[in-house]
Design goal:
Elements: E1 5-6, H1 15-20, E2 30-34, E3 42-45, E4 48-51, H2 55-58, E5 72-76, H3 90-102, H4 139-146, H5 155-162, H6 166-169
Antiparallel strand pairs: 1-2, 2-5, 3-4
Length: about 170
């Protein structure tokens, strides 16, 4: 199986070469293994290279009742912090994708929110040391921390803040 590498600015220029012996050609962020149409893996089948997203058409018996391969396995090599990602439930993914398709939103549109109809359950397994944010504080706690900043633009708030030390700005 040949697997594509996705290049994003947050990727590492050294991890994949070190771990897999791959040549370095700039930041390499994700190694994809699966049938995602944006970057499917390829397999050798009857002497020909076939992308996994086309496998059902060539060998439907290999998938049984499945219309497509239902997975995308990614190996990430993050050298810089990643943005926060949220993924919809299976029901919401199907409904959101169908609505955008019906509205004619192109798949490559920056306003597109659902590029496919699948939910994205995730599991993380570390092969090297890494740090991750694994949850959020309850909303009221987070709101209390940022409450002092809501009044920063008011003249009196600026005057009061000017008399406090930076450490006191975030405390009440």
């Amino acid at each position: 199986m040949t697997n594509p590498v996705r290049h994003y600015a947050w990727g590492s220029a050294t991890a994949f070469p070190r771990l897999f012996g791959m040549p370095a050609d700039g930041p390499q962020a994700e190694l994809w293994m699966g049938a995602h149409p944006a970057a499917p893996s390829e397999v050798l089948l009857d002497g020909a290279r076939i992308s996994l997203d086309h496998l059902p058409a060539h060998r439907p018996e290999m998938l049984g009742d499945l219309p497509e391969l239902p997975f995308l396995f990614k190996v990430l090599a993050a050298e810089q912090p990643l943005s926060i990602q949220t993924h919809p439930t299976a029901e919401r993914a199907r409904a959101g994708y169908a609505a955008e398709e019906a509205a004619g939103v192109p798949l490559d549109s920056p306003s597109r929110r659902y590029v496919d109809a699948h939910h994205k359950p995730e599991l993380v397994v570390a092969v090297e040391h890494f740090s991750a944010l694994c949850g959020f504080r309850p909303g009221p706690e987070a709101a209390a921390d940022v409450a002092p900043w809501r009044t920063c633009s008011a003249p009196r708030a600026r005057d009061r803040r000017a008399r406090r030390t930076p450490h006191e700005w975030t405390r009440r």
